[in-house]
Amino acid sequence: MLAKLAPQTIMLVTLFFAFGCVCSLVMSLGGRRQRRVKTDLDRLDSWFQNGAEAPVTIDAARERLSLPVRERLIRPALKRIARLFYRWTPAQNETDLPQKLLQAGSPGGLNARDFAALKYGLTFILGIVAAQVSTYLTPNISTRFMIAAAFGIIGFLLPTFILRYLVRSRQEDVVKRLPDSLDLMLVSIEAGMGFDGALQKVADKSRSVLGQEFSRLLNEIRMGKPRREAMRSMADRIGTEEVSGLVGAVIQSESLGVGISGVLRQQAALLRQRRRQKAEEKAMKAPIKMLIPLVLFIFPTIFIVLLGPAAIRMIMMFAS
């Protein structure tokens, strides 16, 4: 009976059986791990009650053993895989990638090694899945290889595109909200508040990326970090010319003893002027960008509507 089955069907049944075995093994290991937690905690309690010395404190052991399986098992395994894949990362990405992740807000708590493991792991997984699925679509081996390679390339490039999108969206949100935030800081300073109090006012009123960065800036200052270094760190985390110019102007005003209110008013006016110039630049580029869809889609349709009847009549005249 097995000889009558197609090879694809046998492969599919084998894959499902292997997947079920792996899931059962993971669930059994997870259940055994959870059952061992209480036993380990009871053993540590008995050690401390009997006065025996333990290598770790009971609180640290409870905290480590109470973590979910994802933090105790999966994430350390991913870190080991990331350490292996990170060796293949080009030297230029070793310096650019941490900065990009920082500007993206450290999504998911990923560092450079985790991101490299995600890229190579996604490339491998999508390539394998595409290769298996393509066996049911076409018998041509070269076509299967092309499909698997295409999905592998997609898996390799997709995390980079998502990271760039996160960086760009954060920067656009900061640039959009920065002039209004500077106006609020200016009003607060003119009302008698200090610079840190004005930053705290913006952080409390705004729930955006800029408000979060101002809150982090204030926390670093309270922890003893110099204001100049904290502001430069904020400019590096955001990575825009507008924020870098603002930070440079504020630092220069503090070093020269110039009033901060005038600097904020000038920076707000400068940011609005840059926004207006960018809007005018986009408006001037719009006709050139509209030319491509006009030539490819609109003009052919107009020609068909106008010249179609005449072409049909000419064809009928020559045919008769």
Question: What distinguishing features does this structure have?
Answer:
single chain, 320 residues, mainly alpha, Receptor-associated Protein, 11 helices, 83% helix, flat, disordered N terminus
Structure description:
- The protein is mainly alpha-helical.
- The chain is built from eleven helices and no strands.
- The protein has a domain at 176-275: Receptor-associated Protein.
- Helices cover 83% and strands 0% of the residues.
- The model is unreliable at 1-6 and 28-35 (pLDDT under 50).
CATH class of one domain equals Mainly Alpha
The chain-level structural class is: mainly alpha
Order of helices and strands: HHHHHHHHHHH
What is the tally of helical segments?
11
Instruction: Kindly identify the CATH topology of one domain.
Output: Receptor-associated Protein
Q: Could you tell me the radius of gyration in angstroms?
A: 31 Å
Oligomer: single chain
> What is the overall pLDDT average?
77
In CATH terms, what is the architecture of one domain? Up-down Bundle
Q: How far is the first residue's CA from the last residue's CA?
A: 66 Å
Which outline best applies? Answer: flat
Portion in strands: under 5%
Biggest β-sheet description: none
